[in-house]
Amino acid sequence: MAEYEAGKPADEEEPACCDCCISCENKMISLLDDLGIKSKKHVLHATDPAYNKTMDPCDLTCRNDTDGNFPYFTLIMSAIHIGFYIYFVATDPTHNIAGFNKNILCSPFIYSPYHREEVWRFFTYSFTHSGICHITFNLLFQIGIGSLLEMVHGSWDVIRIYGAGALAGGLTAGIISPGKLLVGASGGDYALIFGYLGNMILNWDSMKNPFTKYMRLIFLLLFIGSDLFNAIFGSLASSGVSCGAHLGGAIVGLGVSMACLKNFNSDNDWEKNASYVLMALSGGFVLFALGWQIFSPTFDKYDEVNPPCYLFSKCEQYATNCSSFSNL
C-alpha cells in the first residue's frame, strides 16, 4: 500500500508496506486516536504539523522519521529478566520457583546494604526476582505499559525512563529500608507506569476519545491509591515489599518522562509549567538520594561489618568469613 505525504508530489512514493497493513490500519485507527497519535491516513488530512512525524503501529518499518517504533527494548529487557530467573532456578539445588533461592541471594546482582561499594548492584537488582509470582506481575506491567510508550515515543525515551527509575529505586530503597536486601524490577516498572502518567499530562488534549482517556486516568489513580494503601499497610505489617523502590521509580519516572516524552501539542502553558516543576522535583530528589547514600551515617554499621551469617552463611564466598551481626 503506497501513500503520500500532504503536499508531496505523487512521483515521490514512500516504500511500500506489507499487505497486512491494510487491515491492520482499519483495526488500529481508533486505538491510535486514543493514544493521541495519528496514522498515515490521518496525516494526509492533519492540520496540526506536530502530528506529521508520529508513529503508525501498522507501519513499523516504512518510515525512518517517526518517534515511535516496535517495542524492542521492552521485549529484550523482559527476555533478560526471564533468562536470569530461569538460570537461577535451574542452578538451584532445590529448583525453587516460588521463593527467594540461594543462588539469587549469593549472586553479585541483588542490592545489599553490606555490598554498597559494588555500585552496579543499585541497578542490577532489577534483573532478579524472588519467585514466579513476583516476576510474572512485574513483566505484565513492564510489557503492557512499556510497549505502549515505546510504540508512541520510541526506544530511547523508554530506556531513559526505565533505567533512571531502576537506579532511583535502588537509591531510595536504601533510604526507606536501609537494612533490607532488594530484588525485582519494580523500580523500573513504576517508572514506566508513572511515565505513562507523564504522557497523559503532556498529551491530554491530544487524546480525542474522552471515555478511554478518562478510563486510563481512573485506572492509574486507582493503581496509585491501592499502592499507597499497600505501602502503609505493609509498613505496619512488616511486609517484604520495598516501598522505597516503588517510590523512587515513580518520582523519577514521572520527572524523566516530562523531560523526554514528546508533547504533540506544545501550545498549552500549563503543560509546559507542569513539566518544568516535575522535572525540577525529580532532579532534586535524585540529588538528595545520592547525597544520602554517600554521606548518611545510617549505613556505617553495615559498611563496617562482613555480610552477616544469618543471611549469607550458605554462600560459599562468605561461609568462613561472615559476621555475627544481626539486623533483626
From TrEMBL:
<dbReference type="InterPro" id="IPR022764">
    <property type="entry name" value="Peptidase_S54_rhomboid_dom"/>
</dbReference>
<feature type="transmembrane region" description="Helical">
    <location>
        <begin position="182"/>
        <end position="202"/>
    </location>
</feature>
<keyword id="KW-1133">Transmembrane helix</keyword>
<feature type="transmembrane region" description="Helical">
    <location>
        <begin position="214"/>
        <end position="233"/>
    </location>
</feature>
<keyword id="KW-0812">Transmembrane</keyword>
<protein>
    <recommendedName>
        <fullName>rhomboid protease</fullName>
        <ecNumber>3.4.21.105</ecNumber>
    </recommendedName>
</protein>
<feature type="transmembrane region" description="Helical">
    <location>
        <begin position="70"/>
        <end position="90"/>
    </location>
</feature>
<feature type="transmembrane region" description="Helical">
    <location>
        <begin position="245"/>
        <end position="264"/>
    </location>
</feature>
<dbReference type="InterPro" id="IPR035952">
    <property type="entry name" value="Rhomboid-like_sf"/>
</dbReference>
<feature type="transmembrane region" description="Helical">
    <location>
        <begin position="158"/>
        <end position="176"/>
    </location>
</feature>
<dbReference type="Pfam" id="PF01694">
    <property type="entry name" value="Rhomboid"/>
</dbReference>
<dbReference type="InterPro" id="IPR051739">
    <property type="entry name" value="Rhomboid_IM_Serine_Proteases"/>
</dbReference>
<comment type="similarity">
    <text>Belongs to the peptidase S54 family.</text>
</comment>
<feature type="transmembrane region" description="Helical">
    <location>
        <begin position="276"/>
        <end position="295"/>
    </location>
</feature>
<feature type="domain" description="Peptidase S54 rhomboid">
    <location>
        <begin position="117"/>
        <end position="261"/>
    </location>
</feature>
<feature type="transmembrane region" description="Helical">
    <location>
        <begin position="122"/>
        <end position="146"/>
    </location>
</feature>
<keyword id="KW-0472">Membrane</keyword>
